[in-house]
Write a structure and sequence with these properties.
With 215 residues, the protein is α+β, with helices and mostly antiparallel strands. Helix content is 46%, strand content 11%. The chain contains ten helices and four strands. It has helices at residues 4-10, 13-27, 70-75, 97-106, 118-122, 138-154, 162-170, 172-180, 191-195, 199-213; strands spanning 34-38, 44-49, 88-93, 110-115. The chain has a four-stranded mixed sheet with strand order 2-1-3-4. The longest helix is centred in the C-terminal third of the chain and has 17 residues, at 138-154.
Amino acid sequence: METFDAEWATAPEAVRRCLALAYEALKAGGLAVGAVLTDSAGSVLAQGRNCAYDDGPWAGPLRGTPLAHAEMNALGVARTEWEMSSLTLWSTQEPCSMCTAAASFTGVGSVRFLAPDPWAVASGNSGSSGVPGMNQQSWLVAANVMFLRSVSEAHRDGAESEIVVRCRELEPETARLHDNLPAGLPSAATLELWLAPVWSAVSEAADARRLRLQP
C-alpha cells in the first residue's frame, strides 16, 4: 500500500485540484464537489466548487443559487474565445444532467469524474469512476466520503439523508469509512492534512470496493 504522499504526488493536477476544491466546500459547510477545466497538457485553466449552500469565501454570480454547481462555476470562468473542444472538464462527482448539458452546449471536448453521482447510486446505479486506469479507486472513495459528510452535516438536525441511507447499502465501504471518521466538519487546514492520517483506511475501503465490484 502506497503512502498518501506518494499517491498524492503522482495524481494528475486535475485530480488534486478537484479534491482540494471539494474540501474547501466541505469546510465551508457546503456540498463537497470541486471541478476544473484542463487543457490538452493537463494544466488547470479554470476551476470552481459547489457554492449553492454555503457562505464561504467564493465569489461569483451563481453563488447561493441552484445553478452554483462546481462544474457550472468552472465553466463560468471559461472565455468565449477559448477552443473548448480541446479542454477536459474534471469533477469529483459525476456531473448532473444540468452540468452535462452545459458541458455539451459549450463544446467541452471530454468529461472526467472521480466518483459516481451519489444521487444516481442511491437510485440503483452500480457506480464507477470516470477516470480510466484508476483501479485502486482511492480518489473515488475520498471524493465520496467528503460528499457523504457534507450531506450528513446538512441533515444533522433532522432525519438522516436518503442518500446516506442508500449508500450504506450500495457503497458500504465508503459509508463505513464515513461513519468511522470524527463527527462534524473537518478542522484540518488543507485536504492533504485531513487525508494523510486516514489514508490507510481510505485505501482499504478502496481495495474492498474494487474487490466487491469485480465480476
